[in-house]
Amino acid sequence: MAGILFIISAPSGSGKSTLVSELRKQVGGIDFAISWTTRAPRGSEMDGREYHFTTREEFQSMAEAGMFLEYAEVFGNYYGTARLSYDDALAAGHDLMLDIDVQGAAQVRAKMPEAVCIFVMPPNPKVLRTRLRNRSRAEGVMNESELYRRLSEASREIEKYREYGYILINDVLDRAVAQLEAIVLAERFYRNGEPIPFRSRRTLEVAAACLQTNSQERLKPVLEAFGIEGDPSRQQLLFGGDADDD
Ligand code: ADP
Ligand code: 5GP
Q1: 131 in ligand 1 pocket by Cβ < 6 Å?
Q2: From the CB of residue 175, how many other CB atoms can be counted at a distance below 10 Å?
Q3: 77-82 and 36-37: which strand pairing?
Q4: How far apart are the C-alpha atoms of 2 and 194, rounded to whole Å?
Q5: Is the pTM value of this prediction over 0.90?
Q6: Which residue among 37, 111, 150 has the greatest number of ligand 2 atoms within 8 angstroms of its CB, and so is best to mutate?
Q7: Which of 19, 84, 99, 217 has its Cα between 20 and 30 A from that of 71?
Q8: Is 142 helix (H, G, I), strand (E, B) or coil?
């Protein structure tokens, strides 16, 4: 495809949808694939806007008919990207962003190794727990078992960070949005020679600092907090009962 394929993955609740929606307001020329899912709509989600909501039966027939570029089972539901989303972006010469989990990302990378892969992390488990809780409250649903299921998967997903070229630590939202925007603009500049609208040197520096290969120092405390690398005594409780975020 003439456009660039971006893949963004993150543990649930890290703020990926928030980042992508801010990016959409600020950067044009990028299509966002609307996935198919068998999970029920959440909060104010609308069919055809956040997701195409469907049944397991319909999803399975679509999968058997080869209609998905990738699909995976995540938290007990199926999620998949329609081939059509990719074909449409290809035909229009647009960039395309896929918001998919680590399993789906691996499937797409195997077919399209040129994809630009971005992994979003929360700064630590406590912040992740708070964000998941706040989102549930805002949506008027408080499903603790679903929340724990998503939290318990977080470390396993974060372990896959090495498969991603860029790492974003979503601590301060404005900074993470600026970093995501810089990555998109820098890739357009390097791959297509597209000029960067303003402050080009700074943009390239911000993007370069997010390369996984340049992120070891930033990553260290996050990986330790999730018990993935480093000193185990610095691991923070995923399911801890601190009252400060309740
Ligand atoms: P994801 O798409 O990764 O599952 P969301 O974008 O739904 O996560 O974000 C989860 C919750 O965290 C939402 O309530 C969102 O408003 C909040 N959030 C996202 N990014 C930040 C941030 N940098 N600081 C504080 N809250 C955030
Ligand atoms: P949520 O239920 O919170 O919207 O999404 C749960 C997880 O499913 C997230 O990690 C999200 O990235 C992932 N996901 C959403 N759409 C797709 C998709 O089309 N394919 C795959 N593999 N994962 C998806």
Answers
A1: yes
A2: 13
A3: antiparallel
A4: 12
A5: yes
A6: 37
A7: 19
A8: coil
Q: Where are the beta strands (DSSP E) in the chain?
A: 5-9, 30-32, 36-37, 52-53, 68-74, 77-82, 95-99, 116-121, 166-169
Residue with tokens 């198919």: 36
Residue 143 tokens, joined: 């499903």
Residues in the chain: 246
CA-nearest residue for atom 2, ligand 2, is: 39
Of the ligands numbered here, which is closest to the C-alpha atom of 105?
2
pLDDT > 70: what percent of the chain? 95
For residue 135, report the distance from its CA to the centre of ligand 1, in Å.
7
Closest C-alpha among 174, 161, 175, 70 to residue 119:
161
Q: How far apart are the first and last CA of the chain?
A: 47
Helix intervals (H) in 112-199: 125-138, 144-158, 173-192
Task: Please give the Cα distance from 95 to 156 (Å, whole number).
Answer: 29
pLDDT band of residue 145 (cuts 50, 70, 90) is confident
pLDDT in the model for residue 200: 84
Rounded distance, CA 168 to CA 178, Å?
10
153 pLDDT band (50/70/90 cuts)? Answer: very high
- Give the position, in ligand 1's atom list, of the atom nearest the Cα of 170: 23
